[in-house]
Amino acid sequence: RSFHDAQLKLKWIRPIGQPAPWTHPHLLSSEECTYGITKLEYATRRANLCNKILEMKQTSDYNNARNIVIIAGQATSYMTNDIPYPFYQNTDMFYLSGFV
Questions:
Q1: What gap in Å lies between CA 85 and CA 20, rounded to an integer?
Q2: Under a CB-based contact definition with an 8 Å cutoff, are residues 74 and 89 in contact?
Q3: Quick one: CA dihedral 22, 26, 18, 94, positive or negative?
């Protein structure tokens, strides 16, 4: 009986994470990644970043170089030597992609 009760409880555990249109249709339309911001907006932001990189390549001596974009995460901050502050990710990745 206890195994059956455990199975019933597992069915009701909701996944934790970023809301999606299929999990929160009252918040997001099918065209949105995050509330009020469409997938097209995020694609435009990433395209603008790529265009900036191409512009920089054309005006520099590195015309034939390949490029990569690395978005650093937030460093851990400490209240004292052993106690960290709650972690909050750098928002640049969220701005470009819509996910954290």
A1: 28
A2: yes
A3: positive
Of residues 30, 42, 21, 31, the one with CA closest to residue 98:
42
Hunting for tokens 């460093």 — which residue is that?
75
Please write the tens of the pLDDT for every residue from 14-43.
556 778 888 888 888 889 888 888 999 999
Provide CB contacts within 8 A for 84, sequence distance 6+: 76, 77, 78
Pairing relationship of beta strands 32-34 and 37-38 according to DSSP bridges: antiparallel
Half-sphere exposure of 3 (CA within 13 A, CB side): 0
Tell me the pTM: 0.64
Q: How do residues 34-84 score in pLDDT, each as one tens digit?
A: 888 899 999 999 999 989 988 888 877 766 777 788 888 788 888 888 888
CA distance 56 to 45: 17
